[in-house]
Amino acid sequence: MNSIELMIEEHKNILRMLAVVRKASYDILLGKEICFEDFEQMIDFIRNYADVHHHGKEEQFLFKEMVEHLGPLGDKLITHGMLVEHDWGRLFIRELSSALDRVKSGDDMSKIDVIANAVGYANHLQRHIEKEDKVVYTFAQRQLPKEIMDKIEKDSATFEKNANDKNIPSNYLTILKNLEQKYQ
Question: Whole-angstrom Cα distance, residue 44 to residue 50?
Fold first, then answer.
């Protein structure tokens, strides 16, 4: 599996987590108590699997090469598109974390902020993933020279090996499976 195929597979796992986030948010809407431990695991998955692990490969390797080698169009697509959207997702998660802290401290009204930021993140990232899978990755594969794609493959493989040596993907996929069982 090449690096683009792997990133598409990771997107599938991230989309599965987004379904969990939406279901947990719906439970709050129905009046169920927030399971803070579950939300902490969701946030951990999002911050470390989706952002550090997955976005790390995109930002350090693929997007970097697209900006450097695809001229103004590549720069605009990545710098003013994908990277802005990554930052927007990080903002949703910071706000979600803050809202959870406020609810823990007794601010019941902040439950609305938990739901808003969790669902906002899920909707945002779902659209973002669709753009990457259908536009960005395809554009990169068509337009980047073979030697640049080979460099991305090599760098991504090293990154992935280091992550696998630390059991990062398998640890987060276990968290995902456990949360999916709870929030079916």
Answer: 9
Q: Per-residue pLDDT tens for 67-116?
A: 999 999 999 999 999 999 999 999 999 999 999 999 999 999 999 999 99
- Contact call for residues 114 and 99 (beta carbons, < 8 A): yes
- For residue 184, give the 3-state DSSP assignment: coil
- pLDDT (tens digit per residue) in 130-151: 999 999 999 999 999 999 999 9
The 10 Å Cβ neighbour count of residue 95 is 17
Cα–Cα dist 151/140, whole Å:
13
Domain span including residue 31 = 3-182
Q: What is the CATH number of the domain that holds 146?
A: 1.20.120.520
The Cα 155–Cα 169 span in angstroms is 17
d(CA 121, CA 132): 16
Count the Cβ atoms, other than its own, within 10 Å of residue 143.
15
Query: Number of folded domains in the chain?
Result: 1
**Spacing of C-alpha 115 from chain mean position:** 18
